[in-house]
Specification:
It is built from eight helices and six strands. It has helices at 14-26, 58-72, 89-100, 104-117, 125-135, 139-147, 152-164, 187-201, and strands at 3-9, 32-38, 50-51, 84-85, 172-175, 181-182. α3 (89-100) packs antiparallel against α4 (104-117), α4 (104-117) crosses α5 and α5 runs antiparallel to α6.
């Protein structure tokens, strides 16, 4: 029986990217049914993005990027030097389109890499459609869905569920039957929760 794991995340959250690597690694040892739910971290970001220097001191930002690279290295995850905070709304809506098409996990990983490893503007329609095409999705119906904001309500619902679940930071991992796990935690913390969940659901 798979262990259900719900993860609240956003494509502009670097430790959510690392968290995806952790879950992929743990999948080798556990039967995981992971559901990633959208929670927009910075909805106030303009469509063109905004300089990160406006939000974070450059030294602190460089330290964060160095830490992210250290944390991501075991999972083959790399972070480029960040200059802009992008708006993630289009990419989050596109991820819901990918979910309905059965391509969520592939799109999810590619979108993280586009933003953090390649430094592309994940709020730009052309970038989102290119990532979708590389995932094997048909970009034409996706473009229309994004123009119509067909998945906007579902993205907003993710944030409502995050609030109801008491989410205060991203990523937040909810392993069934276990205490909520928040933030940039080590793989061992999630592994322990999965071990305890597996014991709890094991047939007696």
């Amino acid at each position: 029986m798979p262990i259900k794991v719900t993860i609240f995340s956003d494509f502009v959250c670097p430790f959510c990217f690392v968290g995806s690597g952790i879950i992929d690694r743990l999948r080798q040892d556990f039967d995981i049914l992971d559901t990633w739910l959208p929670h927009e971290l910075h909805p106030e970001t303009p469509p063109e993005g905004r300089p990160l220097d406006d939000l974070v001191d450059r030294f602190d930002l460089d330290q964060v990027i160095m830490t992210c690279n250290q944390r991501g290295k075991p999972y083959g995850i790399e972070f480029a030097r960040a200059e802009i905070l992008f708006n993630s709304r289009l990419s989050l809506e596109a991820a819901e389109f990918a979910r309905d098409a059965g391509r969520y996990h592939d799109f999810h990983g590619r979108m993280f890499r586009a933003g953090f490893t390649e430094g592309r503007n994940i709020g730009d329609m052309a970038v989102v459609l290119d990532v979708a095409a590389r995932t094997g999705l048909d970009p034409d119906p996706l473009k229309q869905a994004l123009i119509d904001h067909r998945y906007a309500a579902r993205v907003a619902e993710g944030s409502i569920k995050a609030k109801e679940a008491g989410v205060t930071a991203l990523p937040t991992f909810i392993v069934e039957g276990q205490p909520r796990i928040t933030g940039a935690v080590d793989e061992s913390v999630i592994r322990k929760a999965l071990q305890e969940a597996r014991e709890a659901i094991k047939p007696q």
